[in-house]
Amino acid sequence: MFESLKLKHEVSKEEFKAEEPLLRGQLIDAQFDLLESEEFPVIVLLSGMDFLGRGATAKQLMNWMDSRHVRPYASIQPGDQELDRPRMWRFWRALPRKGRIGVFLNAWYETPTRDYLLGRIDRTQLRAHTDEILRFEQMLAQEGTLLLKFMFMVPKDQSVKEVKKLAKRRTAAWKISKEEIEIGKEFSKRYDHVVSVVEEIVSATSTSYAPWIPLASADAHYRDLTIGRALTVGIRNRLNQPGSQTPNIGASATIGSTGPNVLDSLDLDSSLTREAYRAQLKKEQHRLTTATLARKFEDRALVVAFEGNDAAGKGGSIRRVVQALDPRMQRVIPIAAPSDEEKAQPYLWRFWRHIPRKGHITIFDRSWYGRLLVERIEGFSAENDWMRAFEEIRSFESELADYGIIVVKFWLAIDKDEQLRRFEQREEVGYKRYKITDEDWRNRDKWDDYRQAVHDMVDRTSTSNAPWTLVEANDKYFARIKVLKTINDRLEAEL
Amino acid sequence: MFESLKLKHEVSKEEFKAEEPLLRGQLIDAQFDLLESEEFPVIVLLSGMDFLGRGATAKQLMNWMDSRHVRPYASIQPGDQELDRPRMWRFWRALPRKGRIGVFLNAWYETPTRDYLLGRIDRTQLRAHTDEILRFEQMLAQEGTLLLKFMFMVPKDQSVKEVKKLAKRRTAAWKISKEEIEIGKEFSKRYDHVVSVVEEIVSATSTSYAPWIPLASADAHYRDLTIGRALTVGIRNRLNQPGSQTPNIGASATIGSTGPNVLDSLDLDSSLTREAYRAQLKKEQHRLTTATLARKFEDRALVVAFEGNDAAGKGGSIRRVVQALDPRMQRVIPIAAPSDEEKAQPYLWRFWRHIPRKGHITIFDRSWYGRLLVERIEGFSAENDWMRAFEEIRSFESELADYGIIVVKFWLAIDKDEQLRRFEQREEVGYKRYKITDEDWRNRDKWDDYRQAVHDMVDRTSTSNAPWTLVEANDKYFARIKVLKTINDRLEAEL
């Protein structure tokens, strides 16, 4: 879920200085328009294990805005008035009224997350907490609250030492408790475990009306600008649609911001020689045959979803996979525009119908991610529909995984020049099946929209159950081998 | 939650014969208008422990409608195609398309309910199931499906014998499996346990877009007419609002039907002599003082909500309670129209703020139920808002109960003549605090609307955690003693 953490998320001091006055002006304008409208309250939730950045960001937000109309809430130890009442009482008391903005440090997520990490509560209790939170946030959204939830996260290589150093360097704008230092140590020591816990909580509580926004928080400038922008756009979008019935208007403003892109991490020119390709193809296809014919596979199943730029070579990769499979066990399902029958059903229906039974394999040539790609970009889906797709798709895939189905997802990435080369080549060859359509050229015009949509998609739907694999596909040999190898590694790990 | 089960729910053969042709005509008209519109699918879920009535009702619905466009789904044992796939797969396959109606016997609730009742899964696993169901139904609703869920239920005194007799008498329209007979026996033996399990499942899965409709199903005529009417009204209402964004339009059609009313069960003329009253008042007030001063109460708290007809004597009852309490421990909160500050917050905010701390008592003179009474009737709340209040209030009260707060709720009922007598008496006396306002007279004009609203409220928000007590209040003495006694019984049982 936090794929983009691996990238650098930095804004230089100069960029920040250039950007800040502008953003500040827009933010305070939005704040005052909101205040005058008295239309809805805004809650900014700064959450997550980065126990360093949150306080500073909250302070920055308070500085940027007119702090008389911002209600900060820092959940240090609850007082005895609070301990003597049900646990949500103190949050009810702290809710901002319509027209106001509440900045919450962690708030209702803090206690369950910490207690679970420190082994004070078990998974069942954690689930009871997240259920309660879900109901609470649903109520807030239906009452009109704009909820922006940021999950702060730092990359693995930020060591304990750095954490400690930062802790010393920071001015004590918000106190750092001993417990937080404990959590910090724990966090660095058991990073992967912590990330999986956070992923679980984020999955359980990310909804169309209150989606989590994963935030790489190591760099203060990047962090503060990102939140400041999202807050401004969120308020502005919601104000522009007064009285709207859909409670999540504005929430989508928090996605598609201008940070780095997961696709940046790829070296698209990774390549293989023809000889290396031939040797490895043979080897990997043999691995795949062996794994899928293994007795253990009879009780499992495999779903592979291929997405990618137009002309990225999905078809060729799929063929290399299919060659290694017993034809009776596998089906390839090409996904195009929905049929009439499919349109008359809920979106995921047409994918559910092709879910393989035990011991079988379904390969989707394009997939349920269409809603987050073409449908989002072309406006075929309403914002409300594609926003809830993040959550629905995660549930869908985890239902498959819970049943024992192995889910593998590929994005085949090529660059713009390579795509042009392939388009032109295909127009020359002119086989019908390869024909480049007007639609392909139109999609190409929206290259940057797709880049952003891919980033959001990978960022929010790559889970430990069903991770995305980004495939460098300028070189077809390299891409095909990476695809096969990824499937094989997953199969061997799971069986 | 099934308060109204105690009442007789019967429709005579003659009434049924008179009603049926009319309903049938309306239903088939609605069905064909839906079919032509292709606007949305309808799912009718016939669920619950009454393993006798469901099949017959499904058959009746199929008879009434044009069965070519109705898709029945009877979840007998899943086939091997189904067992080989994730558990929701078969329901996805069975979904009706837009314009069609699907009649499901139990469907996705069946397995978890049975498995839990028979001890095959524990509470955590049950919760995982209901979470999955919640996500599934939310998706359906957001995709436009009209979901009508009926929970069949028979009263406790329907013995094993009757159950068996009915089973023999019925023609085998839908097969009754051995397991169902097992469940039936189990059901009769452990009625209270089963009801509490069903209550738990219903609470967890009743939402504003797919609320459960509790249905007394012992009488076939009553049952079939009720469902037929709800289905007709639901389709009709939704068709009248094409393209609406709120997915629960139509769902509310299922409440406020014309069955018996919980208030029917009351003998409003129950009374006490002055002497008996004096003696019992002294005794009950002493019990209350003792209970609330007990050491064990220091770790608990008490919330009492008073609702009732205008002039039913809430004030007098509250005074008799307060007299027995240490003034430092208690507060009485009169609930009137919300203040500006309260209006700028979510609905339940103004009640949360008065939740007592440990060892304390809050008495609400009118309460959060205003949304389901005056706000619903006067249209101060949108349908969408009061429909979700059923669920929100149940969560609210269970959060209180989970924390150890004892929740007691009273509806003080008088009849229309008694109210008139009291109104006239008060106008003669003319103390300002007793003054009868125009609003009181207006409310009186809506007597029948209130009766229906009270019925729905009690039916759907009376839980084992926070049960409603209906108080016969034509005689003030009787009412006051019943109030005190109910509080005392609860306190003594809880402490």
Q: Which tags fit this structure?
A:
homodimer, about 500 residues, alpha/beta, Rossmann fold, five-stranded parallel β-sheet, 10 strands, about 15% strand
Could you give a short description of this structure?
2 copies of one chain form a homodimer. With 495 residues, the first copy, chain A, is α/β, with parallel strands linked by helices.
Explain what you see.
2 copies of one chain form a homodimer. The model of chain A has no long low-confidence stretch (mean pLDDT 86). Chain A has 20 helices and 10 strands. Chain A folds into 2 domains: 3-260, P-loop containing nucleotide triphosphate hydrolases (Rossmann fold); 264-494, 3-Layer(aba) Sandwich (Rossmann fold). By secondary structure, chain A is of the alpha/beta class. The first copy, chain A, starts with 12 loop residues before the first helix and ends with a helix. The longest helix of chain A has 25 residues, at 13-37. Chain A is 51% helix and 13% strand. The first copy, chain A, has a 5-stranded parallel beta sheet, with helices on both faces. In chain A, strands 7-8-6-9-10 form a 5-stranded parallel beta sheet, with helices on both faces. Chain A has helices at residues 13-37, 53-64, 80-83, 89-94, 110-117, 123-142, 160-169, 178-189, 191-205, 220-239, 274-293, 314-322, 340-343, 349-352, 374-378, 383-403, 416-429, 438-445, 447-461, 476-494, and strands at residues 42-48, 70-74, 101-105, 146-153, 212-216, 301-308, 330-334, 361-365, 405-413, 468-472. At the A-B interface, helix 4, helix 6 and helix 16 of A face helix 4, helix 6 and helix 16 of B.
